[in-house]
Amino acid sequence: MQCPTGTVSDFSGDGHADVLGVDSSGYLWYYPNNNYALSTPTKLGHGWSTFPFVM
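Structure (tokenized):
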């Protein structure tokens, strides 16, 4: 999946940087970090294609 926009932060509170990204179809994805790699993404919503940045 291509991720034209995204941000890195600790969204889960576990001390490891997670990733949020928006794909070309406008879906918002959450990629949790398990301290070794990014885990399986979770689709959080749709309609994000009009947002130039995810913060």
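The chain has no helices and four strands. The mean pLDDT is 84.
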